[in-house]
Amino acid sequence: MSTFSGVGTALSSLIAQRQALDVSAQNIANANTVGYTRQRISLTSVPAQSVPSMFATSDGVGQGTRSAGVARLGDVFLDAKVRAASGNAAFLAARAEAHSTLERSLGEPAATGLSGLLSDVWAGWADVANGSDREAARAVLLERSNAVATGLHTLYADARTQWQQARTTTVALVDRVNTAAASVADLNEKILAIENSGGVAHELADQRDLLVTELSSLVGATARVRQDGQVDVLVGGSSLVTGDDASELAVSGATSFAQATAGEAVGVVWARLPDRPAGIDGGRVAGLLSVLAPAGDGGLLTGAAARYDEIATELAAQVNDVHATGVTPTGDPGGAFFTFTAGQPAALGLTVALTGADQVAAGAPGQGEYDGSVAAQLAALGTAAEGPDARWRAVVTDLGVQTASAASRSKVAGTMLTATQDQQLANASVDIDEETVNMLAYQRAYEGAARVLTAIDEMLDTLINRTGVVGR
User: In which family does this protein belong, per the annotation (predicted)?
Assistant: First the structure.
């Protein structure tokens, strides 16, 4: 071993400890960076020469230390758990939000809700029954009946608006999926190039993992790490990202609420193969697709619209059947009280057929102008077991139960997501105290190596400049 070998040993330590300090500094600098995964340098000793060179000897002592690489302290299993929990939580959150929005649109319980409007109508019929000769009571009844029709119009329009907003959101989210997938493919290419050249691309890997997690929350994507370090992203069992190549998704199917209520579904397909569904089964997009589905497939909004139509149809049928048995104050037979606009859904096309208060048929034929027996029968529909009120209460109750269930499931899924994220952060996030201790250790090692270098320098100075001059 050369006399100068100690200089190289001390130098190797200086270089290695400086690199370790750089890694700790990077960790501390990114302690609050979202998605950053802490890094740790691995130091290894340099062994002694196994085949000494000519005129050199070896005492078996190693030749210092060196960096064996910088490890990224992530956990692929925890990452996979977070992504699975994220997709499930986003799916249930989308459904819970849709249920909550629809429930608020009902406006129940409130005087301005449909139940309150129906109660006013039955009270109006009772007033007519008690004073069938009063034109004012009949006029009030017509206004209240128009308010019920308007209320059904509003409910249907709200469901249609919510459907359109959900579809627009779905399109925007699918566009975001395509952008994120392209970014993952681009990062795959960059990371592979950097690592093939001997570099480290941990920060780019952090960005890539954030994008993959975002894709999981959007479309329930899963990730598969390849041997070369690239990440493939799968959606519904098919590849969204393969190495540096990304496929695109597109929204297909119904573009209007009328098409959806007619049975046409909204779906997500592969842009290159429009006839092939993407098979999305998780994430926010899947949750929105379930909300946008036709009524026959369990669609929330189309199902609500169908029930509004049933309420309108039943209301018109029951009122018209009884009203047709009565006569007007002038003795004319009572016709249809409600009618529908052709080409419109029942709830949206319901209108009052009568144009004047004198057309209200309150009494039975041959019972005189003061008879209000037919109006009394109509007022009794408010308490009928199969009346419009009972049917509407069933709709409100059913939606309330569904909303509570959806909110509960979403809350549980959110709690699970938080727990898995906490596990991931505990493993991958930066601990300032730990990094401070490491920095002190690296600092002391650097100072020790510098002191060794100083000692060797003094030894060499004595050997070169003072040997042989003793006594002079």
Answer: Belongs to the flagella basal body rod proteins family.
Which of 53, 459, 424 is CA-nearest to residue 213? Answer: 424
Would you state the torsion angle of the CA atoms of residues 120, 123, 125, 129, taken in this order, to the nearest 10 degrees?
A: -160
Provide the 8-state DSSP code for 382: G
Task: Identify whether residues 34 and 68 lie together within a single domain.
Answer: yes
pTM score, whole prediction: 0.88
Of 344, 376, 424, 345, which Cα lies nearest the Cα of 79? 424
Helices (H) and strands (E) in the chain, counts: 12, 11
- With both helix axes pointing from N to C terminus, report the angle between 388-428 and 76-106 in degrees, rounded to the nearest 10: 160
pLDDT digits (tens, 9 = 90+) for 269-314: 999 988 899 989 899 999 999 999 998 888 999 999 999 999 999 9
Please name the amino acid found at residue 454. Answer: T
Average pLDDT over residues 448-462: 87
Q: What is the span of the domain harbouring residue 285?
A: 79-106+166-302
Give 277: exposed, middle or buried? Use CB within 10 Å, 0-12, 13-18, 19+. middle
Report pLDDT digits (tens) over 196-212: 998 889 999 999 999 99
Does the residue 142 lie in any domain?
A: no
- 228 vs 404, which has greater pLDDT? 404
Q: What is the rounded distance in angstroms from the CA atom of residue 361 to the CA atom of residue 330?
A: 9
> Angle at CA 346, nearest 5°, toward 299 and 156?
50
Cα(132)–Cα(199) distance, integer angstroms: 93
Reading the block at residue 440, the tokens are 């002190």
Going from the C-alpha of 111 to that of each of 13, 115, 408, the distances in angstroms are: 81, 8, 28
- Residue 202 and residue 22: Cα distance in Å, rounded? 14
> Of the candidates 274, 302, 330, which is a domain's last residue?
302
What's residue 248's pLDDT? 95
Average pLDDT score, the chain? 90
Backbone φ and ψ of 277, nearest 5°: -65, 150
The verdict on 170 and 61 lying in the same domain is no
By CB atoms closer than 10 A (0-12, 13-18, 19+), residue 393 is middle
